[in-house]
Amino acid sequence: MQAWLCESTTGPGALVWRELPTPEPAADEVRIAIRAASINFPDLLTVEGKYQVRPPLPFVPGSEFAGRVEAVGSGVTHLKVGDPVAAIGTSGGFGTHACVKAQQLIPLPPGFALEDAAAFAFTYGTSHHALLDRGQLKAGETVLILGAAGGVGTAAIQIAKAAGARVIAAVSTDDKCAACRAIGADDTINYSTESLRDALKRITGGAGPDIIYDAVGGEHAEPAFRSIAWRGRYLVVGFAAGGIPALPFNLALLKGASIVGVFWGEFVRREPAANARALAELARWYAEGKIKPVIDSLLPMSEVPTAYRRMAERAIKGKLVLVNG
């Protein structure tokens, strides 16, 4: 097999393409012939040594991928050679093969494209957990999504619309505004050219959004929170902008608002049954055409350095997917 190997956590520039022995699955594992893998923001943090989970060196990065079962370890009974599956974890995807614990795999229903499957669980799982579980989103409410053109942002737009919400997408360029409107956003804000607070006041008639979905952090967090509706919920999803904002607690008091943490990975670990129900609902919505990953581009697996560069530059609309063969 071949794979990109991270031998030091000094950033994407240290990744090297290596020929490695093809692994044999252990008793509780299967080997996957990887068809496609997507890049997520945590993949960048992981090779920089900044993510919560730090795989031991050396490791193959790539936290989300899909392919077909190629070999099955003893004791694995619910999967067989040829089955299409998706995997999500902290590493292993940026190569041609990977061995994964069988219980961590998501069997794919008929008609689920492998390229879509490689760009699905991480972003849609996060956004479903954020909006419907942690945010308790109700039909008719208004959702503001910061950084709405990225992977979790585009998933959040589609999930919020499927749940019957009004969606305001906030992004940094007019091109990204157009991309968000194309997948269902009701209103858009270019916060590079317009005051976020003024735009929210205009769009909501002064009422503010009921839910703020923030995977960006940084300078827009406080003005967004100052605009939140009475009993609003501010979902803390991530900090793609790099800066971790400090929100004044008096704002939560004045608006009767909640600041709600969203950590999908820990939710998966602690509440696997609830996560399984959420993924089943998402798979059903995919089959019904209500949601579909926004694929920015398909690149060969050899272009992993390009994928990391574009992720660092925040130049990806939706998900960038790398493919083998």
From TrEMBL:
InterPro entries cross-referenced by the UniProt entry: ADH-like_C, ADH-like_N, ER, GroES-like_sf, NAD(P)-bd_dom_sf, Quin_OxRdtase/zeta-crystal_CS, Zn-ADH-like_protein
Keywords: Oxidoreductase
Keyword Oxidoreductase: yes
A family per Pfam: ADH_zinc_N
Domain called Enoyl reductase (ER): residue spans: 11-322
Organism domain of life: Bacteria
GO MF assignments: oxidoreductase activity
Entry EC number(s): 1.-.-.-
Protein name according to UniProt: NADPH:quinone oxidoreductase family protein
Organism for this UniProt entry: Ideonella lacteola
